[in-house]
Structures are given as C-alpha cells and as structure tokens.
Specification:
327 residues; mainly alpha; Na+/H+ antiporter like fold
Length: 327
C-alpha cells in the first residue's frame, strides 16, 4: 500500500528529489564541476558494481519474488507491455508522418519504452515501502531488457539477428543470481540480522547495501549532466516533441494502467505498473540509435521533452492510476 494518504502533493514530494538530482547534474555540468570525461567511469561504476549490489540487496529476502509464478508474471508483463509499447509508438510515428530513415524507427523505440531504471527505482522505493515492489521492479525490468534487445533492436536495425550477448551484463546477471538465491532459500543466510546463521552474511549484506544505496543518486546526477549536453545537440521538432509526449505520457500510460487493473497479476507488479505508467522515456534508446545507425537526435528530443513534462504529469498519473487500479 502507499504510505499515508494517496495525494498528489505527497506523490510529488516523493518524486521531486529525482528531478532535483537531474537538475543538480545539469548545473554541475554547466559549472564545469562534472566534466564529460567523468561520465563513462561513473556509469561503469554504477552499471557494473553499484546497481548490481542494489538489485541483489532488494531481491534477497523479498517474498514478492519467492514464488515462480510471480517471477514469470514480472518477466512476461515487462516483455509484453514493452513490445506493445513499441508497436503503438510505431503506429503513432506513421500517423505523425515520420518515415523510415527519417526518424520513424528511432521514435518508435524512444517513445515506446518508459524509464525503468534509475528514475523509477527511487519512486517505487518511496511510494511502496516494505511491499516488495522494488524487487518486483527488477524482475519486471528483466522482461523489459529482453524486449529492448530483441524487438527494439530489430526495429532500429531492420535486422532479425538479436545481440543476445549484450544481455550478459551486471544488472541482468544480478537479477538472475538474486532469483536463484531466493528460490533456493540461500538468501536467508545473506540477510542481516541476529543469530549464528547471519554471522557471516550480515556484514556482507550490509556492505552490499551501502554500495547499492549509491547507485541511483550517482546515476541520476550523471544523467542530468548528460542531458545538459544533449539539449544543444538537436533543434527541437514540434511534431516529435508533442508526439513523443502524447504517446509516452498519455496513450501508453492507459495501456499500463489497464494491465495493472485487469490482469490477475501479483500486487507488487500492479504497484510497479502504476509507477511505470507515469515514467518518461528511457535514455537507452539514445545509445541504441547511435549503435544501430538510427537518429539519436530524435531520441534526445523525446527523452528530454517527456522528462520535463513528466514532472507535471507524473503525480496525476500515479494518484489517479493508483485509485483506478485499486491500490
């Protein structure tokens, strides 16, 4: 359940720190305190060390992912809704008059997938305390990653070959390892607590939790710095900016909220979907567009526009969506 009364002001107070960190990163970049040469080392640290530690810390001991059917629900819904998002954004790109080679593919991938990582994590943690929603978010994200690196890459590249090797990364491996530990019950020996069973696991779990706690503040700060660089790279197109905002922040949220209300999914997954419905576009399509000869500028416009507008739409979507879903 949401902590306290579900009200727009409380939701805004919960999510505002995320946007303040983005703004802080942009300001630090502008002042020259955070240089471009620091981006890659910081992201490598987050992606390969801090984020995997956060995932393991949140998954271990969580009852929301202890049942195989709950895990299958999370992965399946993450994949299915992301693929459906790509399809919807593809149709919208055609309606906007975008053509292949002129931004249609990139628009479909950029508007089709919501931010499922660094921005979503702190929001879920703030709103659903002790509900197991954070652990379920990581399981759901595994399905999203599968959809991005299969359906998303095929849309961008026009190729049917899927780069499965890119799925062998720190976050994916840590989700699978966490689920293995939970499924076998071995996670109980790594949970901090009293008694002989935790004599070895306690300090290790605490150190892992400390490392994990730094994942999203560092990542969001650097994301804000990168967004400051991207703002000046592409002249905004009203068609792409408005179209991206309508698709990502108005049309697709209804699909995610409908899934949360009508699917017989676990409660923790419903909570995740309500937050996901409110999220702006993910930043990963910018990288994908660069790798697969798409239009990075289109992705940049969609990401920046939806991020800015979501500051105003996010509280409403979570409040109204939560009530409609019945949380």
């Amino acid at each position: 359940m949401l902590r306290g009364v579900l009200a727009s002001r409380e939701v805004l107070a919960a999510v505002l720190p995320v946007y303040l960190l983005i703004l802080a990163g942009a300001v630090l970049r502008r002042l020259g305190i955070v240089g471009k040469d620091q981006d890659e080392p910081a992201f490598r640290l987050v992606f390969n060390v801090l984020y995997p530690c956060l995932i393991l810390d949140k998954i271990m001991g969580s009852e929301s992912v202890r049942q195989p059917q709950s895990v299958l629900w999370g992965i399946g819904v993450g994949f299915g809704l992301t693929a459906l998002g790509f399809a919807g954004a593809w149709l919208a790109a055609g309606a906007l008059g975008l053509k292949k080679g002129a931004g249609k593919r990139t628009f479909a991938v950029s508007a089709g997938v919501q931010n499922f990582g660094y921005t979503a994590i702190p929001v879920v943690e703030q709103l659903y305390v002790g509900a197991g929603a954070t652990a379920m978010l990581f399981v759901h994200n595994l399905g999203v990653e599968l959809a991005i690196w299969s359906v998303g890459v095929m849309i961008l590249s026009g190729d049917r070959q899927i780069p499965w090797r890119r799925l062998v990364n720190g976050p994916v491996v840590s989700v699978l390892l966490g689920l293995l530990l939970v499924g076998s019950g071995a996670d109980q020996f790594l949970c901090a607590g009293e008694g002989a069973a935790h004599a070895v696991g306690g300090p290790l779990r605490k150190a892992m939790a400390w490392l994990g706690a730094g994942a999203f503040p560092v990542a969001i700060l650097i994301t804000g710095a990168v967004m400051m660089d991207l703002v000046a790279e592409e002249r905004p197109s009203p068609r792409i900016v408005l179209g991206g905002c309508v698709v990502r922040l108005a049309v697709l949220p209804l699909v995610l909220l409908a899934a949360a209300r009508f699917l017989p999914a676990p409660l923790a997954l419903k909570q995740v979907l309500v937050v996901q419905a409110a999220m702006p576009s993910a930043m990963s399509p910018i990288m994908l567009a660069k790798i697969y000869q798409g239009r990075p500028g289109v992705a940049v416009q969609v990401v920046i526009a939806t991020t800015v507008v979501s500051l105003f739409t996010l509280p409403f979507v979570i409040v109204w969506g939560g009530r409609w879903v019945g949380l």
